[in-house]
Amino acid sequence: MSEVRFTEQQSKVITTHGRNLLVSAAAGSGKTAVLVERIIRMITDKTEPVSIDSLLVVTFTNAAASEMRERVGNALYSAIEDDPTNLYLQQQLTLLPSANIMTLHAFCLQVIKNYFYKINLDPSFKIGDEIELTLMQNEVLGEVIETFYTEGDTNYLDFIESYAPGKSDKAVEALVLSVYKLSRSHPMPEKWLENSIDLLDIRNLDQWYESPYITYMMEEIFEQINDLKLLSREAAEIIETDIRLKPMMETLTIYDTYLRDLESVKDNRRFVFEILNNLDYPRAKSAKRGTEPEVCEPVKALIGRIKDQLKTMQNQYGFDYDETFLKMTAISHGHMKTLAAIIQVFSEAYQEKKADKNMIDFNDIEHFALNILLDDKGISTEVAKIYADRFVEIMVDEYQDSNLVQETLIQNVSRITEGKPNIFMVGDMKQSIYKFRLAKPELFSEKYDTYTTEESHYQKIELHQNFRSRKQILDMTNYLFTQLMSKKIGDVHYDASAALNLGADYRIESDVYDTEVLLIEREGFRGLTTRQIEAQAVAVEIQRLMALDPPMMIYDGQEKTERRLAYKDIVILMRTMTGWSEAFVETFASFGIPVASRLATGYFETIEIKTLLNLLRIIDNPKQDIPLLAVLRAPMFGFTGDELVTIRLTDPEVDFHSALTLYYNSIIGNTPLDEKVVKFQLVLQHWRQVKNSLSLYGLVQQIFEDTGYYDYVSMMLGGPKRQANLDMFLDQVHRYEQISFKGLFNFLRYMEHMKKHSIDQGEALLHDEQGNQVTIMSIHGSKGLEYPVVILPALSKLFNKNDIRQSVLIHQDFGFGTDTILSKERIKIQSPIKEVLKSKMDQELKSEELRILYVALTRAREKLILIGSAKNMDKQIEKWSRALSIESIHLGTLTVKSCQNYLDWIMLALMRHSQAKELYANTGLEYSGKVALQSIEPSLTIYQKTYLDYESNPSILKALTPEDQEKKAKLDLDFESKMAWTYTYDTLTKMDISQSVSEIKRLEEESYTKLPTREKTSIRPVFIAGEQPMTGAQRGQAYHKVMYHLDFLSQMEENSIADRIKELCQKQIITDREAKSILPRSIKAFLDSDIGKRAKIAASKGQLIKEKPFVMGLEPELEAGVVTSDYRMVQGVIDLFFEEEEGLVIVDYKTDHISEGAIDTLKKRYSTQMRYYKKALEQGTGKRVKAIYLYALGISETIEIKIEA
Predict the structure, then answer these.
(1) What are the backbone angles phi and psi of residue 810, rounded to the nearest 5°?
(2) Measured at the alpha carbon of residue 613, what is the angle toward residues 611 and 619, in degrees to the nearest 5?
(3) How do the residues of the chain divide into helix, strand and coil, expressed in percent and rounded to 5?
(4) 710 and 581 in one domain?
(5) Which one of 622, 624, 758, 1164 has the lowest number of neighbouring Cβ atoms within 10 Å?
(6) Closest CA to 766 of 717, 704, 700, 718
(7) Does any domain span residue 816?
């Protein structure tokens, strides 16, 4: 049917039926094309055609299902064109839209919808939103924890004290949810939890020595012993070459004896651990005096590695296994039983909560389907038999990423129980990279090890021919993984049978396609992070590739011809995008390289989403200073920093919204700030009024309409993407309104949880991002894709071991591992069981990381560039050089397992490549070379670069900002001239750019005579000093508060003034202490004075303003042509001013105690302050200030201040 020419092995996969068939399909082997062809041939078979609705095709993603359905449809259209009258083919085309080509979750959902009544499920159920379910889980768990506290069970309280010390239970809550999630990846979660707890129930030492933990330890110990024997033999051979090294043999012999002793008791587990526990390490003997370091160092290093590994084994597994150990294990067992009890109660409460809302979650889909297909005894139900009869064959794509629940489901709708296996499984163990999603790659591995290559009911076929990549890519991949991957680390024995074979035919051959390895020494790059250094290196490489002459040509599969390399042909793959992607995007922008970053996160960090969320927060509750200030500063309202300071000074003691409201209520003019405040207050009031009548979706649209913000972001840098992010926000609002939570407050909580739990869908992707630009994406995101050029940076980033560092470790097979915690004694005792889990999880982590590296390398079609960096590259090369002394082709489990990043793995393997000789030329080491490795050496170039290589690169210099170029020019100046340089305006650096009027007055006052009674405020707290008399400053603040709240329009007598003071005290505007310090008669005297009467007249006309804040800019001052002051911002508050016919009058209250003859000093002291008040008021209002008065409340006297114009 197809024009594609299939290989013999591919044809065998396509035509083999009537059995369970496992296809191990290596990267680029055409598994999807083979799978589609298999379906087409089954449908169109002339003898025994199989209807499309008699097949179950399970894919890993919805996108893969759509693609497969499309391919099958295209094939059917082609077949119908060849035979237009074939009604059967037309029927198959009609059945295709409803065909069972889907993800396993989609199939399970179909089972539930068809047979919901079998499990008493309401058919109107809905699938819960992820955030809604997270909120529900947290709510239910909080209630469960509270219930346990209420019951006061001593076991529970001891558990909490042990695993959640302090005031928060967050650690225990996270642990409960983590174990609950893992349990749901098992067909019977409760049974798995029970079995995991039982593993810790160790009653005696005989049981302990037969436990799976000891079995694992024994395997680890003797595998490491085999590796150590190789190291020992290597050291002995070197010693034999030089008689001066003979003394070192004594130490080596001791360690050899340890290894032999352990091997001699291999069949007696108790003896093994007794010996291991009692190992000691004598001081190592040195070579004879005068022996050159380069001669003895290799032996010294090998003996050191043997000693270190023996110590590691001893620390991990060499415990005293006695009655005390059993008691400690019993304590841990009790703690984990309590944990299991909490999880069980939580699980039941959570299921009940979902049932109340007629809601199911993602895990329920699989488990409910399983409950329909299996009875309580684990036997297939009638429904399962119906499906088994219906499906002639079940095909599973990406089988290596299945879990136990999915495996059980598939088995129970197959015909295996009838003795007619009919499951077709295709995948690649080397590409299993979803263990973090609880995939169980061991399912694939077990079948691979047990299925036969010969004809049988359980058969395997291997596809190793790669039709994607050039020979250089395959050679590099094979060279690395032959040395690195094994059954122990990687779960695959990577030999010739697992290696990739060339299947692609590229017409153009050139060394430009050779793999490149770039090693960068970070020392010398000043002011740049590792991410920025590597980003610049990648940018330079891209520019070099794009500028090659003759140009680099790549094959275009759509055009079926070669064309020049374009930006869109290049992908940068990263193990983690967070932090790295942003640095690369920013750097590429400075180089002029177009780039699209496929971030799975970052949505909540975009300025448009932050602004919109802040605006919704203050619509919900404006008494939130940070969101409010962020919104006011945003372009939609555009308040400046100075304007915000002015508002703040209205009342520094209240929240910002209250200060804003006070300012709004006191507006009498029409300044730009007044207009902004009025606009903001009115629109905020409007939004707060309509939020309950409009839908949330309608409210957001109303905001866009009122502010024009949606249109505004389109004019920002990256405008189309920003608008797409806002569209995505509207979609999120729409989805939220479909769930059970309602209202703005709950939406904001919903979004906070979305951010908190890292449910971040990433920024919106635009259609034009598929244009001519470099792509940055994660390795996981690249699975199933391919690119002409792959660049893999950040190789030196350490593996993420957070899961291994938890207080309680959880493993699918070994259950729980925790140190024994004695809460009362505050003691934590190391547990060998936890060490087992730690070792096993570390091994699995390294295996997964190795497979991830394999996936990254095999995405490349034509060229591969690997980039890593180190602070001291020579030191790293010396470390990698240990590979030169390894005799076996494989580097050994110990060596591979000891690596902490991709760069270590790659360079340990490449050190044995002929191109690496220059790297270790200065180490004195040599590598004779293994014939088997030499025969598969890839064509590659290894570059070692420092900052000097980039400093001289014009591309780097061009990419520097003007500021960076200025810095570089200064660094190149003569040292003496730089040291002699002085800043012209040095005096200005010691001046504040912002000062209050009071501060300016204080500084100028230092040359004046101080008033006799000027006081200093005590800084001693009341609980030490006791109640102290009020200072002048404190008394002044009290008077100002009362004067601000005084009604100038009322007829005030001393009694009414006293009543007003009491009222202010009751409203907590002033304190009791402040109230006692205020004399009503002094206020009455002010009101009866001439200036008080004038103020009352102005108040009656609405022309009196109290407590008016201002911020004013002052130009730099010149003296003899020299700048003596910088631009300054002056701020203050005018106590009182009012307008009369000839101009404005300023009144400032003073509570200083003034002695006889001190009035002139007072005038002099406050003249500067009044001058600034006058200038600020005239600038702000455009009106002349005709008079300024100080009113001394202490002596009831009005003092006029004359200010020259």
Answers:
(1) -130, 130
(2) 105
(3) 55, 15, 30
(4) no
(5) 758
(6) 718
(7) no
Helices and strands per DSSP (H, E), number in the chain: 49, 31
Domain stops at, among 466, 501, 521 = 466
Lookup: tokens for 1010: 């101080």
Residue 285 DSSP one-character state: P
* Cβ(50)–Cβ(43) below 8 Å: yes
pLDDT at 1023 over 80: no
Residues 633 and 718 in one domain: yes
Residue 1192 among known ligand-binding residues: no
Residue 879 sits in a domain whose CATH number is: 3.40.50.300
Residue 610 domain-assigned (yes or no): yes
Looking at 1088, 1104, 1134, the residue that finishes a domain is 1088
Asked whether residue 50 is assigned to any structural domain, the reply reads yes
| Band of residue 976 on the pLDDT scale cut at 50, 70, 90 | very low
- Is the alpha carbon torsion for 100, 106, 108, 109 positive or negative? negative
Task: Compute the mean pLDDT over every residue in the chain, rounded to the nearest whole number.
Answer: 86
Phi and psi at residue 1006, in whole multiples of 5°?
A: -60, -25
26 is in an annotated binding site: yes
32 is in an annotated binding site: yes
Task: Say if residue 728's pLDDT is above 90.
Answer: no
Under the banding of pLDDT at 50, 70 and 90, the label for residue 329 is: very high
Torsion of CA 736, 737, 743, 747, to 10 degrees: 10
Residues 74 and 174 in one domain: no
Region 802-822: what's the mean pLDDT?
92
- Across the chain, which distance is largest between two alpha carbons, in Å? 124
Residue 794 in marked binding region: no
For residue 691, what pLDDT is reported? Answer: 87
DSSP notation for 460-507? EEEE-EESSS-HHHHHHHHHHHHHH-BTTTBSS--STTTS-EE----S
> Crossing angle of helices 154-163/170-183, nearest 10°?
100
Find out whether the peptide bond into 954 is cis, omega within 30 degrees of 0: no
Examine the domain organization and report whether 793 and 738 are in the same domain: no
Q: Is there a domain that residue 134 lies in? A: yes
The answer to whether residues 350 and 306 belong to one domain is no
Was 29 annotated as part of a binding site? Answer: yes
The Cα–Cα gap between 1186 and 417 comes to: 105
Alpha-carbon distance values, 436 to 593, 844, 845 (Å): 34, 11, 9
- CATH number of the structural domain spanning residue 674: 1.10.486.10
**Do 1177 and 1119 share a structural domain?**
yes
Mark whether 309 and 338 lie in a shared domain.
no
pLDDT of residue 486: 94
**What's the rounded mean pLDDT across residues 624-633?**
93
- Domain identity same for 225 and 141: no
- Locate 1168 and state its tokens: 């500067």
Total structural domains in the chain? 7
> Residue 823's closest CA among 329, 157, 155, 158?
158
Asked if 796 contacts 870 with a C-beta cutoff of 8 angstroms, the reply is yes
Is residue 1199 within 8 Å of 1159, Cβ to Cβ?
yes
Length in residues, the chain: 1205
Q: Does residue 147 sit in helix, strand or coil?
A: helix
Q: Which uninterrupted H or E stretch holds 1108? A: strand 1104-1114
pLDDT at residue 1020 tops 50: no
- Directed axis angle between helix 471-484 and helix 902-910, to 10°? 100
Nearest to residue 284, comparing CAs of 263, 264, 305, 267? 305
Radius of gyration of the chain (CA): 39
- Stretch 598-624: mean pLDDT, rounded? 84
Owning domain of residue 1166: 994-1011+1094-1204
Nearest to 579 by CA among 844, 876, 372, 800: 800
Contact present, 792 and 865 (Cβ < 8 Å): yes
CATH of the domain at 1135: 3.90.320.10
Handedness of CA 428, 432, 437, 439 (dihedral sign): positive
Report how far residue 47's alpha carbon sits from residue 2's, in angstroms, rounded to the nearest whole number. 18
User: Is the Cβ–Cβ distance between 22 and 448 less than 8 Å?
Assistant: yes
